């Protein structure tokens, strides 16, 4: 059952959040070293799925295996980087102080705090208080805090929201280089035009996996070219 | 438990405090102002000032630490940084310990400054040593910190946390012997006060002021209470939510 080449495996996963049944008998496999896009409308269960994978969410039934271990295992705390939708950083610390703090919690740090800031293009803001950052800068700082400790798996909940196109391209380049290093990225988005930047896609709707495949596969299967139309067509298949 | 993570946590909390000059100023100026008012309230009865002021030196750090601890922990919750920490290698005891050490240090500075002001400027006479008084004040601060941490697990918002002050701290204050010596209260209340940590904190400051009796037992009891409530705090700090 436990497949080493899978970064994440879910089997018949059921999750309730605040009494509501969010994920229904969900099955999925995410191979290692890919950028997996998690697409779906707001309320489809993207965040709940991500929280379950990182081990913050109690699951009702089913199994989640992350890097060959059950989700929420202690050993996984060194291996997972997670950024939430609301950029979770300390507003009353500077950018570099935020990174230095998180870096001190991990044993292995391949990159220095300054290098990490460089990667998200915040070098100029290193000594700026996080409270005075713009929305996009804050999102990048939150992303940077997930890169400390050189995690094998990055779970990023809508990391590119509110970013200008130039920065977005830059971040996707960063994601690609991380994937080339063998890291696995699960990136959620409700912007369908980001789908083509991902190696593979999972389309989520009402807590169920509608489809999984490469963008090209999903296009061929539905005969549509725009991702929005692909999604609509897949809903129609059901 | 790893020392480097505990230090990182402590350093981070102190940095946050240092970046907030208004809070820092209030930390030192408000107790000094209150002591000054107290001095002139009891202008016609200086003996009463001597009796009350010493105990108040313990009460201020406790109130302040309760407030900043409960609000700071709730802020970690609402900003999402707590979840970020819960999936990191940081142990719960390092999280709580970091706050305890950082705020404990802040209360050390506060108690030193305020007691010096009361002694040198306001003419408060203490029969015991000032350093023992500072030690007692830190014990009081740690009680406030521990209760603040405990409360923050029951409160969902900062707004609720503040409401716990009149609900949990003020009854302890009324029963602590600050208003009426504990043995002079009705039996039931006196018995009840024996179970409240603040009673021992006030007893300790009184003993230092009058230099009567050792505060060993009082501080031992307070440390036991602290250990208990901090352990309970790390149990109620959950890594997973439903």
Characterise the protein shown here.
The complex is a heterodimer of chains A (238) and B (242). Chain A is of the alpha/beta class. Chain A has a domain at 87-150. In chain A, 31% of the residues lie in helices and 27% in strands. Chain A is globular. Chain B is mainly alpha-helical and 242 residues long. The longest helix of chain B has 34 residues, at 46-79. In chain B, helix 2 (21-41) packs antiparallel against helix 3 (46-79), helix 2 (21-41) packs across helix 5 and helix 6 (130-154) crosses helix 7.
Helix content of chain B: over 70%
Strand order of the largest sheet of chain A: 6-7-8-3-9-10
Please report the two chains with the greatest interface, counting residues with C-beta closer than 8 angstroms to the partner's C-beta.
A-B, 31 and 25 residues
Radius of gyration computed on alpha carbons of chain B: 18 Å
Q: Which series of helices and strands of chain B comes N to C?
A: HHHHHHHHHH
Main β-sheet of chain B, in a few words? none
How would you sum up this structure in a few lines?
The complex is a heterodimer of chains A (238) and B (242). Chain A is an alpha/beta fold and 238 residues long.
Provide keyphrases for this structure.
heterodimer, A: 238 residues, alpha/beta, 4-stranded antiparallel beta sheet, 7 helices, globular, B: 242 residues, mainly alpha, 10 helices
Chain-wise SSE layout:
The complex is a heterodimer of chains A (238) and B (242).
Chain A: E1 6-17, E2 20-31, E3 35-39, H1 46-54, E4 61-66, E5 69-70, E6 80-83, H2 95-104, H3 113-119, H4 135-147, E7 153-157, H5 165-180, E8 184-189, E9 200-205, E10 208-213, H6 215-222, H7 227-237
Chain B: H1 3-18, H2 21-41, H3 46-79, H4 81-86, H5 92-121, H6 130-154, H7 158-175, H8 187-193, H9 197-210, H10 216-236
């Amino acid at each position: 059952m436990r497949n080493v080449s899978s970064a994440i495996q879910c089997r018949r996963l059921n999750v309730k959040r605040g009494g509501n049944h969010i994920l229904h008998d969900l099955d999925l496999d995410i191979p290692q070293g890919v950028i997996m896009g998690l697409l779906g409308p707001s309320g489809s269960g993207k965040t709940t799925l991500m929280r379950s994978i990182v081990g913050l969410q109690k699951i009702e039934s089913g199994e989640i295996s992350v890097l060959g271990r059950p989700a929420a295992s202690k050993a996984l705390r060194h291996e997972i980087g997670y950024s939430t939708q609301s950029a979770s950083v300390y507003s009353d610390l500077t950018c570099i102080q935020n990174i230095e703090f998180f870096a001190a919690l991990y044993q292995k740090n391949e990159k220095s705090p300054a290098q990490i800031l460089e990667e998200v293009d915040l070098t100029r803001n290193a000594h700026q208080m996080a409270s005075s950052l713009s929305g996009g800068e804050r999102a990048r700082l939150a992303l940077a805090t997930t890169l400390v400790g050189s995690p094998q798996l990055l779970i990023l909940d809508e990391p590119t929201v509110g970013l200008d196109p130039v920065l977005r391209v830059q971040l996707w380049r960063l994601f690609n280089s991380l994937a080339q290093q063998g890291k696995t990225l699960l990136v959620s988005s409700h912007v369908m035009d980001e789908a083509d930047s991902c190696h593979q896609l999972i389309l989520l709707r009402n807590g169920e996996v509608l489809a999984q495949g490469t963008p090209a596969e999903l296009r061929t299967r539905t005969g549509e070219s725009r991702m929005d139309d692909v999604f609509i067509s897949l809903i129609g298949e059901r | 438990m790893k020392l480097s993570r505990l230090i990182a946590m402590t350093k981070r909390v102190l940095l946050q405090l240092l970046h907030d000059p208004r809070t820092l100023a209030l930390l030192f100026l408000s107790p000094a102002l209150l002591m000054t008012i107290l001095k002139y309230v009891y202008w016609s009865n200086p003996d009463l000032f001597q009796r009350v002021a010493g105990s108040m030196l313990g009460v201020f750090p406790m109130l302040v630490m309760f407030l900043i601890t409960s609000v700071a922990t709730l802020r970690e919750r609402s900003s999402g940084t707590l979840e970020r920490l819960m999936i990191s290698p940081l142990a719960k005891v390092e999280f709580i310990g970091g706050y305890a050490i950082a705020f404990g240090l802040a209360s050390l500075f506060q108690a030193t400054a305020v007691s010096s002001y009361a002694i040198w400027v306001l003419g408060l006479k203490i029969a015991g040593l000032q350093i023992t008084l500072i030690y007692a004040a830190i014990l009081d601060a740690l009680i406030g910190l521990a209760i603040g941490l405990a409360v923050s697990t029951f409160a969902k918002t900062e707004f609720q946390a503040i409401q716990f002050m009149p609900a949990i701290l003020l009854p302890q204050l009324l029963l602590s012997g600050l208003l009426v010596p504990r043995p002079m209260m009705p039996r039931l209340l006196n018995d009840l006060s024996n179970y409240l940590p603040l009673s021992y904190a006030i007893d300790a400051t009184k003993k230092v002021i009058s230099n009567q009796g050792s505060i060993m037992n009082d501080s031992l009891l307070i440390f036991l209470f602290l250990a208990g409530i901090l352990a309970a705090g790390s149990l109620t700090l959950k890594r997973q939510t439903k």
